[in-house]
Structure formats: C-alpha cells, structure tokens
Write a structure and sequence with these properties.
With 562 residues, this protein is mainly α. It has 2 domains: 332 residues, Hydantoin permease; 65 residues. 61% of the residues lie in helices and 5% in strands. A 4-stranded mixed beta sheet has the order 5-2-1-8, with no helix packed on it. β3 and β4 form a beta hairpin.
Length: 562
C-alpha cells in the first residue's frame, strides 16, 4: 500500500460527525485501479448531453473543428483541478463533504456540499428522464406504435421504470457502481465507433461528411437589415451531389401564403414580426421555422468572445464533478492511479463522443432524404434513432442509450449528493438514504422542463461552483500544504469547528464575493463578461481572497502537524 496514505489513528466512531459511509476507506477496499477510474470517466462522459455539446456550438456559427478544439481544451483545463482536488481523496480516503470541513468548517461545508448535491439532483432528473424516453421508444418499437409528441403517460411510465433501475444500483452500493462502469465502458466505446462507421459507409467518405457542417451552421430562415430595408434569407440543405433538397418555400405568416420556387437570393419583406417559413420538395415538408433578425458580424472580437463563452460553458459541464471528485478517488490506492485514470478517461472520451455527435449529425444531412433544413437535423441520438424504420435497430440502439445514461447518472449524479445529504446527519442518513433523497428530489425538480435549459444552466452553475473549487484547492495546497488532521475532521469541537461555530469566516467571505462577482453580470448587462466567464471569475476571486484572509488570521491555521 502507498506509504503516503494517511490512516485514522484515533477512535472517533461515537462522534455525531462520523459514519461508516463517511469514514476513511480502509486499505482492503482501495480496489479501483487507473483503468477503473478511466472506465468511470468513459461511463460518465458518454451521454446525450456530451453528444449535444458540439451541436449547440455549431448552431451558433462555429465550425466542427472549432467546436472540437474548445471541448478538448476545456476538458484538459478542468482535468487539472480535478486531479488536484482528487489528491486528498487518495491520501486520506475521505469524501468531499469531509474534506470540505477543513476549509469551510464542520457546519459551513453544508452550504457548499448541499448546493453541489442539489445541482446533481437536477442532472439526475434530466438523465433519468432521457433514459425513460429510451424505454418509451423501445416499447413503441416492440408494439409498432408511433410515439406521442410532447408529454404523455407512456413517457412518465418509462421515466418511472428507469428511476427504479437507478435506485437499485444506489441500494447495492459503490461496488455495484464500479461493476457497472467497468463493464459498460467498452460497450459504449464500441457504440461510438459503430456510429462513426455507419456514417462513413453511408456517405462514402469522411471529408464528404464533415463538409456538411458548413450547412448546419446556418439556420433555415433569417432576417437581415440593409439600410432601412429588411430581407428574408433562406438556407435549405443540399445533398452530397450539391443539389438542393427543398424545391419550394412558403411564408406561413402571410395571409395569402402560397408555395413559391426556392431561391437563394434575399427576399424583400415589409415587416419582421412573426415571420414563419416552411420548405418542401415533391413529397416531404419541413418543420415550420421562425425567422429571426440577426445582427451583422462584428469581426474577430465577436468570434473570440464566442470562443471564451463556450469555453466557460464546457468547463462548467464538469464543474460539479471537479468539486466532489474525492468521492471517487478515495477508492484508489495510489496518486498515480487517480492522475492517470482521469487524464486517460476524461479529455479523450469527451472529444471522441463530441466528434461522434458532430460526425453522425453531419452524415444524417445526406443519409436521410427527409431532412430538408438544418433545424430538422437529428442533433440528438433519440431523434437520429427515430429515423430508422427497422424495429430491431431501434431497440438495440435504445438499449445502448440506456446503458450510457445509467452509467453517467449513477457515477456523476448519485455518489456526490448521497454523500452530501449523509453529511447533514451522519448517524441517521446513510449513503443509501442519501441516494433515496437524491432520487426523490430528481423527480420534484421536474426534469421534463429543465432539459431545454441545459446551456444556460451550465453557465449559471459555473458561477456557483467555481468559487467552491477555488477555496478547496487554495486551502489544501497553499494554506495547509496537503496536511489535514484526519481525526479532527470528525470532531464537533475540533480544530475545524472554528471556535465551535462550525463556520470558517474566511471561506464564507471568499465564497460570497466569488459567487457575487461571477453572477453579477447576469443582472447587470455592463458586467455580462464576468457572468459569461463565471467559472474562471468565481474560481480566481475566491482562490485569491481565501488565501489572503487565511494568512491575515493565521491563528486558525494551527494544527497538530504545525
């Protein structure tokens, strides 16, 4: 066993802050190697939100390789604090809520851990709803029925079934989670490779497929202004031979709307309100799309700002896990395992599956004749699978979807909130009970409404959690030099109770100002740049302020190791 691992030398089992679930993981249970940790990251990263990330960027005008570079860079950035924060998990074998007691105080940590837990509950609900949709799709494929649009009883039944499956793995504990992630990882990698091969084979070449991303960057209908005159611009898709897939268009909002021959020339319009357009060819009609006024490009500065905005959102994608990563690394036996496992598993998987999303969606433009406009492209796997007519293809694909969603949900959205809720009342709330609370809150959050707000949700979450991570890393590395008094972390009147109040004032002040500065741009337009870069803003402000405050009040740094 690694000699750097610190063992508990004192019996503090009677303390109200101690429980078997929050206690240091003993040596005989440190069974997770770098490959287990890498498999966990594969299991977490392969999910529908990952698949959708690049498509969100392409819709705003970025091309496919710009989107992929941003995703890769963002995940390299977030892996660094992930590894730094995972160090204490390996060294002391304790989860994030217990580590956080050192920086925030035995009571103050609840503010950080429960916030992280509730956010995870939101993600848990979203992923469970997505899994429920896969079950609903399997039922429709087996029975030969068409799925209903919007919310339906069938979708809620699927949601309930998938919720029960998640609860089973929560009840079985962390070893069942390791088993799930280990065996699902290779299946998920195979699924990604198979999707890329299908797209390549149907389209007859990689370059042909990726060239379609240019078409997906443009919305089907937009309005531009030249002087005092407004023009309607149409953008129907082309097949791989370069022929237009739509032959006609109509402006639905016109009182006397008629079908006209498609034109790529700007169309003079008299007003810009409620302009709706539809396209068709001889047999197929597109969905009806709204034409919105677009502002002229403001040059390279606008492009750079778009890069920074998306970089922040992508970093925010794993902002929650970067805080609570010790919940997982505590089961690793060496620092080498946790470092290698995370760098092997996270950046590469995120780039691979984002590329899968890009490649498959681009291929769909030319592989399916009924996709006439970019707005109808199957950006998500559920929409893609619905394009296939063979029931067995649909069923197998949806089973893969279930595995991907389940593996993500359990590892990323259950372990952390279960520990956070358990930490509220260690003697009464176990890991299992915390998991049950997570499941219930995942329903109460009503994920069927939250799903459409993911991109904005990510930036807001970044502002909340960047400061927490900044404080944790500053405390562990700069203030305490990686030395914690393990037994004291479990004592109500110990050195981490901060004068028996349970709150470290320095952490509370740093957290408040970090969150305030990160989010103020949400309400004050002139400071919007702070909000757009919320994770970086909050992290830096809280990191620096916490170190300064702790040095000023050096008496609270005294420990038995000093």
């Amino acid at each position: 066993m690694n000699k750097d691992i610190v063992k508990l030398q004192e019996d503090i089992s009677s303390s109200p802050l101690y429980s078997e679930d929050l206690a240091p993981v003993p040596a005989n249970k440190r069974t997770w190697s770098k490959w287990h940790l890498a498999a966990i990251w594969v299991g977490m990263a392969v999910c529908i939100p990952t698949y959708l990330l690049a498509s969100y960027m392409i819709k705003t005008g970025l091309n496919w390789y710009e989107a992929l570079i941003i995703i890769g860079l963002a995940n390299l950035i977030i892996t660094v604090p992930m590894v730094l924060n995972g160090h204490a998990g390996v060294k002391y074998g304790i989860p994030f809520p217990v580590i956080g007691r050192a920086a925030f105080g035995t009571k103050g940590v609840h503010l950080a851990s429960v916030t992280r837990g509730i956010i995870a509950c939101g993600w848990f609900g979203v992923q469970t709803w997505i899994g429920g949709l896969a079950i609903y799709a399997i039922f429709n494929a087996v029975t030969g029925t068409d799925g209903e649009l919007g919310l339906s009883i069938g979708k809620f039944i699927g949601f309930g079934i998938f919720w029960i499956i998640n609860m089973y793995f929560i009840w079985k504990g962390t070893e069942s989670i390791k088993w799930l992630e280990t065996y699902s990882a290779p299946i998920l990698i195979i699924m990604g490779v198979a999707l890329i091969y299908w797209s390549y084979a149907k389209a007859d070449g990689f370059s042909i497929v990726l060239n379609q991303s240019v078409q997906l960057e443009k919305t089907a209908a937009s309005i531009t202004k030249k002087g005092d005159v407004f023009y309607l611009n149409l953008n129907a898709l082309k097949n791989k031979e370069g022929d237009l897939k739509a032959l006609e268009y109509t402006i639905i909002s016109d009182k006397n709307s008629i079908w006209k021959a498609y034109t790529s020339e700007p169309i003079l319009i008299s007003n810009t309100e409620n302009i709706q357009v539809q396209f068709r060819n001889d047999e197929i009609a597109s969905s009806i799309v709204n034409a919105n006024v677009i502002s002229p490009e403001s040059g390279s500065d606008s492009k750079l700002w778009s890069y920074l905005l998306w970089l922040t959102a992508m970093v925010g994608f794993w902002a929650t896990m970067s805080i609570s990563i010790a919940d997982i690394t505590r089961y690793a036996s060496t620092q080498k395992d946790q470092i290698a496992g995370q760098f092997i598993g996270l950046p590469a998987t995120m780039m691979l599956y984002s590329f899968v999303g890009i490649f498959v969606t681009c291929a769909a433009v030319i592989n399916f004749e009924d996709i006439l406009i970019a707005d109808d492209a199957p950006w998500d796997p559920v929409s893609l699978i619905s394009k296939f007519k063979n029931p067995m293809v649909v069923i197998v694909a949806q089973i893969f979807m279930l595995i991907a969603t389940l593996s993500t949900n359990i590892a990323a959205n259950v372990i952390a909130p279960s520990n956070a809720f358990s930490n509220l009342w260690p003697k009464k709330i176990s890991f299992r009970t915390g998991g049950m609370i997570t499941g219930v809150l995942g329903i109460l959050i009503m994920p069927w409404w939250l799903l459409n707000e993911i991109s904005g949700f990510l930036i807001f979450v970044s502002g909340l959690l960047g400061p927490v991570l900044g404080i944790l890393i500053a405390d562990y590395y700069l203030v305490r030099k990686k030395k914690l008094e393990l037994a004291e972390l479990y004592k109500e009147d110990g050195i981490y109770s901060y004068g028996k109040t349970g709150f470290n004032k320095a952490a509370m002040i740093a957290l408040f100002f970090g969150v305030f500065v990160a989010l103020i741009g949400y309400w004050v337009p002139a400071l919007n740049f702070l909000y757009s870069l919320s994770w970086f803003t909050g992290f830096i402000i809280s990191f620096v302020l916490y170190v300064l405050l702790m040095k000023k009040n050096s008496t609270i740094l005294i420990t038995k190791n000093s």
